[in-house]
Amino acid sequence: MNRVWTEEELDILRRDRAARIPVPVTAAKLGRPVPATYARARLIGTLVQPHQPWDEASVARLRELVLADPPMTDKRIAEELGRTITQIRWKMQDLDLIGVRDLSKLAKITASETASSRVAKLPAQKPAPRMQPAPQKPSSAPLVTPQGPVTDSVHRADPAPVDPRTALEGALVRLEAKLTERLKNSISETEAGMIRAATDAIAEKRGIDRRLADLGRRSAEALAEKAKAERMKVQAEIAEAPVPSQRRLQDIVAGREEKPALKEPKRATAQPVAKKPVVPATRGVSQAPVSRQSQPPAPPPAPKIVVVETPVAARAEPNLSLDPVQVSGRGGWKSVRRDPARVAAQAKAKAKPTSRADAVDLALAAQAAINRFIAERGVTKTERSGIQAVISRLQARGYIVVQDGDGWVIDQRHRVDGESALVAFAEARGISLDVAA
Fold first, then answer.
1. 309 and 248 in contact (C-beta within 8 Å)?
2. Tens digits of per-residue pLDDT, 369-404?
3. Tens of pLDDT along 46-61?
4. What is the Rg, in whole angstroms, of the alpha carbon atoms belonging to the chain?
5. How many whole angstroms separate alpha carbon 407 and alpha carbon 414?
6. Is there a contact between 363 and 356 (Cβ–Cβ < 8 Å)?
């Protein structure tokens, strides 16, 4: 998550850039990444990288210096052209001049220059010690004064003059090395602290996992012991139950034997039917059959109640399926045709998005549908500004949008001033204000 730059941090960055303090040191001081500090310094105009174009004369001079004999070092070529060593090496790589010089000659020249510089610095760094004259003993012999010029046997070496530019460069190199060492030490200490914190967090997580596992094992053991105690209690109750008497057992067995007999269906037996002789009817005699008195049906046997002390097994419930069953005819649910547009919309909603852009579009469409649903029912809500919607849509597409004063900086490369420029930038990339709203 990007942290907002405060005014105090910007003032510190401006002061350090004015004092020519390296950007990594300022980043370590502010506790921010080095690339982000470089980017912020460029945005506020405190870090300007000069650009020196290469013309044909400079390229020809570079070729001449690279192909010179004896060969010259990159430092001397950079001093001759008034450029940095990095610029020289990049241009040599572009012109395929990296392997042109004789490296053996260049190494010998460099070694000789280094040795001569060491020899020149040696008398300046270590002056000759002073020779104290030995004490003279008094003697009676007359002193003889030589007529010729007196010459000292010990010549004092005058210190070589020190070049102030060289001394300044050496001091700067030492200061840079010292600052680099301090920066490395601070970075290593920070990394070690982060590693220690991560190690402690991992150890704490392992301890929590271990305690959770112990708690789960203990709860499982407690549940098992509880189930075992309930089982033993039920077995004890069954053992303590009174034994039924012999008469009750006989009644139970008799009831079980009578039940299959009652359940057996009565088979219809074919009985012979007696045919009545046909007699010619006489006049005046009614042909209607003589009605017989219907006998009442036999009363059903009285049900026999049997008391059973043993528990009866529970009846198996019929398997009632809740799935809808197709009904033939017009009333069946299969006869109703579904809306194909609704089916396609449901299938698209259930399908997973293939990319992040599809997911964003789907989320925005869902939000628009929710807003339309709410608006249709008379419920209103506070809408955010259109510019904020455009910024949110740009961020959803992967752009980094940072507000800087009255404008915005996009991806640390593009700066737009004003809302109209931001809307034009979004519309050029297929994001309109209506779609974002």
1. yes
2. 887 888 787 755 555 567 888 888 888 888 888 888
3. 866 666 788 899 999 9
4. 54
5. 11
6. no
